[in-house]
Amino acid sequence: MFSSTSAIIELLGTISFAISGTFSAMQRRLDAFGVLIIAFVTSVGGGTIRDLLIGDLPVAWMRDVQVCLVILATSVLTIFFKTHIKKLKVTLFLFDSLGLGLFTVVGLQKGLNFGLNPGICIALGTITGCFGGITRDTLLNTIPLIFQKEIYATVCILGGAVYLLLLHFQVNTDVSKFIVIALIFVTRIIVVQHKLSFPRINY
Amino acid sequence: MFSSTSAIIELLGTISFAISGTFSAMQRRLDAFGVLIIAFVTSVGGGTIRDLLIGDLPVAWMRDVQVCLVILATSVLTIFFKTHIKKLKVTLFLFDSLGLGLFTVVGLQKGLNFGLNPGICIALGTITGCFGGITRDTLLNTIPLIFQKEIYATVCILGGAVYLLLLHFQVNTDVSKFIVIALIFVTRIIVVQHKLSFPRINY
Amino acid sequence: MFSSTSAIIELLGTISFAISGTFSAMQRRLDAFGVLIIAFVTSVGGGTIRDLLIGDLPVAWMRDVQVCLVILATSVLTIFFKTHIKKLKVTLFLFDSLGLGLFTVVGLQKGLNFGLNPGICIALGTITGCFGGITRDTLLNTIPLIFQKEIYATVCILGGAVYLLLLHFQVNTDVSKFIVIALIFVTRIIVVQHKLSFPRINY
């Protein structure tokens, strides 16, 4: 049960980020091949950096060709049905936020499985959640990300802290995962909608 | 015989990319030290990413100081004989294409040796072939690459698929390697000469 | 004694780069969270690349949460006392140079402990010393670095060669470390003050 919940979360995260990557690449008018590459990088980027840092090699997608097929299928379907989606920007944002929540939980749990320090697990969750989107935006050279990057990370750190707290109070692992995914998803939408930001340091 | 063919291909790839890196850096008027660094990064960049992803660590060039000496010697000789080479841009392009073919085969074979899935092996060959040039162009901040990047990758994927097909039909490994290197080299020249490209997706 | 000297050097390097990162980020007027991230990346960037390349995984800071706490404390204290520091640019440069010397020695010694070739150890020392600052400047998008990058690296290579020479002549390890740290620190200040640079290759 535990393992299958993890597998479902990872699958949904992969699909969410593949969709978000495909939309981003289409917005920038890349050719068909470029769209697939961006979808792939967005989907596996965070997990790859995570696996490199903790030394769980070969990295996940190299051991599991099904991940690659899921990304390919998702991206092709997204391109195919693109005409049916009117609000491209909003859709992209929603799938990006969902992927963020899903992958943060995947990274958190992997850190715990490796017996790493709680603080490091939060960092690992944040890296897994954020780096796919960061790599995507870097490759596509989109400017607005720079302003959202920090909010991105803070939401993941908050989610990570809540997850560890829930586990500490013996809340069921699957329930905790669901709560944290929902928390990250909703918090990010609120933060972006209200344009919340950190205070700048005066010098 | 098998091992020595691999070693020769790797040596030739290292030399090709060291030459291509040196030319690129000289075109951008870097100082002597900068030229050596770019030559080195172009030569070992693809293999380093490959070894990191599959976890074959320390990465290849850290275990074999001869690779570093070959790059150093190649780069110094290239700088020394630069006045004898008239068509800098064409020479750079030819060595870059040759290195692409050679390193793609090295990466493909390494993936097969590690028992990875055929699709992943093609990805690994593509990464080994492409990332040296991508890193070089990123560091030198040359714009034109962005347009060629996808053609770069597609040629490698095509070569990888042909290689696996040849091995499947029991063609001799060394013969298969030679065919694929020649295929990638020639295809890339044809693609660039005729300015072939993928269709853009309309949105 | 040996181990404790290493630990002190690593601690001082971490603090130096955390201060240099904090100053850099404040100069660019980042918000509080951004400053912490830049301080962290500057401090652990070089060691992370080093550990990835030699395969000493999980990377150092993932195994030692105290490093993270030291960076956090250093950065917060630096922000707090910033009004007392008049010459921000000079202070940043001094701490950056000190961190460069300290981390180069850490990287060199780690390479020797792993039984790598002397030339590779020098490369590893250079990577450990330079990559924190390079990553910091890349993230902050500061232009001047590009001109200093090569001097950065050359000073580390010089320091590495002297370190291996001192060990070869049986000089005490701790004394050798101190000499090399001082050498890199002083050489870099002289190089930058006198605007020394390498000859450009004419084409």
From TrEMBL, chains A, B, C:
<feature type="domain" description="Glycine transporter">
    <location>
        <begin position="94"/>
        <end position="166"/>
    </location>
</feature>
<keyword id="KW-0812">Transmembrane</keyword>
<comment type="similarity">
    <text>Belongs to the UPF0126 family.</text>
</comment>
<feature type="transmembrane region" description="Helical">
    <location>
        <begin position="6"/>
        <end position="25"/>
    </location>
</feature>
<dbReference type="Pfam" id="PF03458">
    <property type="entry name" value="Gly_transporter"/>
</dbReference>
<keyword id="KW-0472">Membrane</keyword>
<protein>
    <submittedName>
        <fullName>Membrane protein</fullName>
    </submittedName>
</protein>
<keyword id="KW-1003">Cell membrane</keyword>
<feature type="transmembrane region" description="Helical">
    <location>
        <begin position="61"/>
        <end position="81"/>
    </location>
</feature>
<keyword id="KW-1133">Transmembrane helix</keyword>
<feature type="transmembrane region" description="Helical">
    <location>
        <begin position="32"/>
        <end position="49"/>
    </location>
</feature>
<feature type="transmembrane region" description="Helical">
    <location>
        <begin position="175"/>
        <end position="192"/>
    </location>
</feature>
<feature type="transmembrane region" description="Helical">
    <location>
        <begin position="151"/>
        <end position="169"/>
    </location>
</feature>
<feature type="transmembrane region" description="Helical">
    <location>
        <begin position="114"/>
        <end position="139"/>
    </location>
</feature>
<dbReference type="InterPro" id="IPR005115">
    <property type="entry name" value="Gly_transporter"/>
</dbReference>
<dbReference type="GO" id="GO:0005886">
    <property type="term" value="C:plasma membrane"/>
</dbReference>
<feature type="domain" description="Glycine transporter">
    <location>
        <begin position="8"/>
        <end position="82"/>
    </location>
</feature>
